[in-house]
Every structure is written in C-alpha cells, then in structure tokens.
Amino acid sequence: MIQKTNQGFEDVLTQHGKWLERQDAKILQVNVGKMCNLACVHCHVGAGPTRKEIMTRETMENIQEWVEDNPLPVVDLTGGAPEMFPHFRELVSWFRERNIQVIDRCNLTILLQPGYEWGAEFLKEQQVEIVASMPCYSPENVNAQRGNGVFDESIEVLQLLNSLGYGVENGLPLNLVYNPNGAFLPPDQAELEAVYKKELAEHFGIQFHNLYALTNLPVSRFATYLKQRGSYEEYLQLLKDNFNPASINGLMCRDTISVDWEGRVFDCDFNQQMEMHTGFDGEPQYLWDLDLRRWKQSEIRTAAHCFGCTAGQGSSCGGALG
Fold first, then answer.
1. Which among 137, 232, 233, 234 would be 20 to 30 A from 217, CA to CA?
2. What SS3 state is found at 185?
3. Average pLDDT over every residue of 234-251
4. Taking a C-beta distance cutoff of 8 angstroms, is the pair 263, 59 a contact?
5. Which residues on neighbouring strands pair with residue 311, listed in sequence order?
6. What's the pLDDT tens digit per position in 194-227?
7. Domain boundaries along the sequence of the chain
8. Alpha-helix runs per DSSP H in the chain
9. How far apart are alpha carbons 9 and 6 in whole angstroms?
C-alpha cells in the first residue's frame, strides 16, 4: 500500500520494480472534438453542447495521409460525441475502405437527436464497433451523472442497436462502459458485468457483449467536481493507496497513439486534457510529423492522474487490466 501522498507516479513504479515501455503501435485514438449533446459530471474531456472545439477538414486530411503510410489495425474515435464531427461519416467510411477496424465511443443518446437519426444504420452498415457509455442499469444513477431523461433515451437506443444486430450472439460488437458516480473505485468488472446483463435483459430485453469498468480520473470536469467538494486530495490518495502493479502491462499508453482535434500527439486521452503532449521544448508534435520508430523509443509522460489507470483492477479504454 502506498502511504505518502507526495510520492510521484514514477517513484511508485520504481518502488515496485516496474517501468513503462512502449510496444508497437496498435491503436490510433482520435478525439475529433469536444462538442457533445451531454455534459456528464464524470467527463474528463469537459465536453458539452457549448464547446466549439472541432476538427477541421485540413486536420482530418493530414491524419488520413499519415494513416496511408502508417496503417494501424484499429482507429478509436472519441469526443465529445464523435458523431457531431461534420465529416464523421466520410472519415469512418475512409477507414473501413482500408479494412481498418473502427471503434465509435458513443454516448447513445446522440443517435436520437434531430439530424443524427442516420447514426445507428450507418454504424451497422460500416460494421463499426460501438463502445457506449452506460454508467448504471438504474435510471437514478444514470440521470444523476448524465442528465435527466438520459437513461430512458439510452435504453431506447440500446434496443434499437439490438434490433440491428448489435450486442447479440455472433452479432456486431456492442460494449458498455461503467463509470462510478462519485469518488470511489469501480467494483469487480466481471461481477458487475453479470449484474448488468441480468438487469438489462430482464427489465428491457437488452443484450450486449462486454462491460468495461473505468475509473474516474481526476482531470478536467471531474477534477473540478472533486475540488468543489474538498475531496480532490482524498481521492488522489485513494488511487495511490490502491496502486496495482499488475495493471502496468495493459496500459493504453504503451500501444496507443492519442491525437486531439488539432492533430497533436499525446500518450493518452487523459494527457490530452492536461496538455501533456509528446513534443519537445514545449512545442507540440503533430501526427503527420510522427515517425513510429522514434515514437516507440520515446518516453511516456506521466503525472499524478496516472494513478487512476493503475488503481484497483486497473483501468484503460478496454476496461479492467488485472
């Protein structure tokens, strides 16, 4: 157990005989912007309806040009609500034409919004994997975390996706994401998944494949939430006290290239929000200037928020780590 609040992440790694070393890049995660129809309490991006940050066509084309020369097997699209990116359909189709697997980090409710009704059918047509935020199987918790009425809309969309072949046996991949609705760690992922599947099936006839239990990291909107309640240091201590060395090998920063809406390169989506880019001398590095050999040899940037990914079961974009 880690007892000293002032210990840095690198210090704790060393204490446990661990270090972060990159693997070959497997995933290109692209945050296309911070525009979203929701403003969730736990959102580490601080996304919402009033955010104006959105990727330009020029940036998108520069990313496409880089991918032509460096075709990674998976592209993970996130936001905000990725579907609100004006060129979302064009970009997804471009990747799929090149047999690149596409993941859409979907908040579900966007697929019911006026002007986005095309979403579900399009995702099916393109065989896109959906990773959908669903922080609980009860309306009280979901609405408290994401807004009134969000639970009912999410259920409606999940039923629609099931009807299109998502989430069913041998169907298109539909995975749900759980985030705690407060300053505590997620419960055991496997046990929680079993409860989710039972509750959603019995009450709503909904099926899905996997549940990803993610720890809330103390950055952006969730950090503000903690500080307003005077619990930021306490939460950070909780993460440190529950450091799990077995989580290190599965961390996303080892094989994922994270790119923001401006095309800048980061080690993860959380470092994006902390403005911890991978550039040199204070200048950002852009994806179209990135050499994969140099990237693999470069150091991974860390800070206190990294304890969130290594606490308890560990937490990455694919859920618990160990």
1. 137
2. coil
3. 94
4. yes
5. 243
6. 999 999 999 999 999 999 999 989 888 888 889 9
7. 23-231+250-300
8. 9-15, 57-69, 88-97, 119-125, 139-146, 150-163, 189-204, 220-228, 232-241, 269-273, 292-297
9. 10
Reported as a single tens digit per residue, the pLDDT across 282-305 is 899 999 999 999 999 999 999 999
Residue type, 101: Q
Distance CA 140, CA 151 (A): 8
- Mean pLDDT (the chain) is 91
Superfamily of domain 23-231+250-300, CATH level 4: Aldolase class I (3.20.20.70)
Q: What residue type is assigned to position 279 of the chain?
A: G
Closest CA to 13 of 298, 302, 215, 229: 302
Residue pair 268/255 in contact by the 8 Å Cβ criterion: no
Residues 91 and 58 sit within 8 Å (Cβ to Cβ): no
- Give the whole-number percent of the chain exceeding pLDDT 90: 75
Non-local (6+) Cβ contacts of 135 within 8 A are: 42, 141, 142, 145, 146, 177, 178, 179, 180, 181
CA separation for the pair 260, 263 (Å, rounded): 5
Which tokens go with 34? Answer: 């911070």
Q: Is the pTM of this model over 0.90?
A: yes
